[in-house]
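Example 3.2
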Amino acid sequence: MKLSALKSASLISTVLLATTACAQPSTPDATSQNMSQNPKSAQSMNAQNTTAESTPADGTVSQSVDSRLRQVLTQAGIKTQITSIVPSNLPNMYQVNLAGQLPLHVTEDGKYVIQGELQKNPSKRVVTETPARSTSAQLGKPVSADVKSDILANMSALKNMSAKTPFFYTAVPGVIWGATLEGVPFLLSDDAQYITDGEISVIENGQFVGLDEEFEALKNQSVFATLDKSQLITYPATSKERAVIYVADDVNCPYCRRLHQQMPTLNAKGVTVNVIGYPIYEASPEQMRGIWCQADEGSRRKAFDKAMLAGQMTPAPASCSTDHVTPNREKAAGLAVIATPAIYREDGVLYQASFESPEFLEFLGVE
């Protein structure tokens, strides 16, 4: 079983002191680990984070729920001893405490699972009213403006939180998915009192099947809908359109440049490519601003081609002081990009293998 592992620094530290790191090529498992491994590290994290404020709320769990969750988790491959099951401080979830491992937070039906130590938000709680819980129809959609305002009001001590921070409804009512503007994902209770890093995993047919793919796809579709389409650099299909993809790109990313070399082939096969300017390297923001400052889409496309194919950067005209890249880059934080190029189908599904593999065209549904 694989779940996202808690990082060595607490999430509170991350959101207070987060810095941007250059994305590197990685495999889908690069940020995951087997639950049965590295108990020493997990014990260390438990020791660091176990405080009176972050322990589960007092309460009882019925015998039927306790038995069902133990059975579901054991069948799904949890071999570590389950020491106790108590109500979680995440709404509509139970905390499953494991010997020598980070706890799990599980829904009553055993379908949705989060691994991680909850941390108490140090901010003063300004909004005390419990928000209306989300419905299935809101899955993967941004939280309402009122809910976002209330969340941020209760997160004043977290310096990286702002009106630009993306928040989305998950499949668990009362549990909100968010990301820093650097794309680091986290989960929190909808009253913003408890927070943890990581993602929601799913158990289906007695097995862990990975992240909640339905949520991820719907969330990504929601992000695409917010992007300023006029500030995407689009390479339209040159034959009958069969697929549309979004690519988060940096002009200094070697793998982005290799993908760009395939652009004519992709277009000829009916693939329209929408490029999201996603600078991660130190020099990239200003270089990409210069490209996006060109007078029209055709000029931007030519300048982008020069950068990607020849490494030649086009400076911004003296008359252009506008940054057309950052607004879409900030909106794309909801994609939680961990490496560029990040390639998404129009339906929001992220491609997680080499784009130089035959699997890529199969993923796009083209030959």
